[in-house]
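Researcher: We are triaging several targets before committing to wet-lab work. For this one, the compound of interest is NAP. I'm pasting the protein sequence and the ligand SMILES. What I need is the predicted three-dimensional arrangement of the protein with the ligand bound, expressed as structure tokens, so it can go straight into our comparison scripts without reformatting.
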Amino acid sequence: MKIVGGMNMKKIAFIGTGNMGGALIKATCKAVDPKEVLITNRTIAKAQELSDELGCCLAQNNQEAVKNASYIVLCVKPQVINEVLEEIAPVVREEAKKRELVLTTIVVGKKIADYTEIIGLKELPVIRTMPNMPAAIGQGMTIAARNEFVKDAQMQEYFSLMKESGLMEEVAEDKMNAAGNLSGCAPAWAFLFIEALADGAVQTGVPRKSAVKYAAQTVLGAAQMVLETGKHPGELKDAVCSPGGTTIVGVRALEDRGFRGATMSAVTAAYEKTIGMK
Ligand SMILES: NC(=O)c1ccc[n+]([C@@H]2O[C@H](COP(=O)([O-])OP(=O)(O)OC[C@H]3O[C@@H](n4cnc5c(N)ncnc54)[C@H](OP(=O)(O)O)[C@@H]3O)[C@@H](O)[C@H]2O)c1
């Protein structure tokens, strides 16, 4: 679907329709009428394909997207974010004089102050978020922070636009890197764990397909128990480990190989990398 001149203002526009942008666009199109969603991308054919699939609107370029929506979500890689910001800056400044406009970003590492500085508008409302890949199936964990120019009602509206992507939680910006780093990266580590569980089961004779299914459902169930019971994971672990039983032998094997230390190191190493990004 193409946009045409004189169209009504859209609720939300996405710049970048890649892996994460695409997942959020799909979720947003479930939360609101897809006609309220405007998308664009460097390779415009990719955005066109998604717009045809979802029935949302297409902007031919980034400036056109900014001109026609209330929330602008930046979904490009960190390597190109500065050039995108420089490109849209004059339009953002112009539009912000006339109406309410909130700039939102999913780009890792970059601070809210960097956006307002490059755009050249200190009072620009900015929401910085860190979604994760399970948003693609409505099971994401998104961490969000805002500057003082984003009103409560705007934050609530943005959360509501994103509600089909999974859980959303607001933190102060100084906790953004730490919290967002965990939610953004941990799916990959969880996939690794599931793969390793399945490999172990294959070694003991379970067919591959079943092994992957059993491992994934088991991890899902365990995660759900943590959330639903509110119990400490250590307490739940203790409840599964019978004295002299099989599970505690596995716990010992994992601890012998530094399982928890290795996992904590993954979190802190990724955090160090995050804070080194500009
Ligand atoms: N993937 C994750 O799990 C995850 C989680 C949290 C946050 N993030 C953040 O999400 C952002 C995007 O990651 P991704 O994995 O979705 O990357 P991706 O799949 O490479 O998508 C990036 C998209 O941006 C488009 N793009 C590049 N330059 C552009 C420009 N000048 N104007 C408009 N569109 C442009 C690309 O278009 P082309 O089709 O032309 O390449 C591509 O579709 C990153 O900043 C990352 O930090 C990702």
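Researcher: Any quick observations?
Model: The first strand starts at residue 10 and ends at 15.
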